[in-house]
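Everyone, carefully examine this protein record:
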Amino acid sequence: MSKTVLLLLAVFVAMPSPALPSQGRIGEVVQKSLPLLERLAAEKSVIQDILVRNATPLPPTEVQKIQREWTEIGISDLERPYLHNGSSEEMRRYEPWIPVMLKCFVLDCRGNVVGTAPQCNDFVHGTMDKFLKCYNRGRGRVYLSPAGLDVSTKIYSIQVSVPVFCEGRTIGVLVATLSLE
């Protein structure tokens, strides 16, 4: 091995690794936040926004266009309605009660964003565990993602997915990214 490689290995090994959150911390954050997230998922504005989107789904070409702009451009005219609607306003209203909440977004029955506060990383979540395991083929259940470093905030966090119900059936999913720090 060259001296440069050995030096880089020595520096890497000597670097302190960030402390991973304990299971106790994860349990504490989830236990305190889950009842409020379930209440948020039951708010009329959240349910109404999802019902409207489920009744009038976006064409696949529009979904692709929004996803492309969402990830490449940032906030554009296509994204503003998702940041300023009833469900996103409700999410912002809950922020003081859930201080560990970094992001929150609501998904329709296809896994596409209906509302977000602030903007989440993707528009389309329909193939991700946070949607699939929570929506659970229409039999909603709470899903906790593995703890990890959030890409956008660089904070150790967990995503909690909560089903959104209307008249006893699952119509969508609310996802909250919660800080573990």
Notes: Residues 23-41 form the longest helix (19 residues). Residues 157 and 180 are 5 Å apart (CA to CA). DSSP finds seven helices and six strands in the chain. The chain has one domain: 22-179.
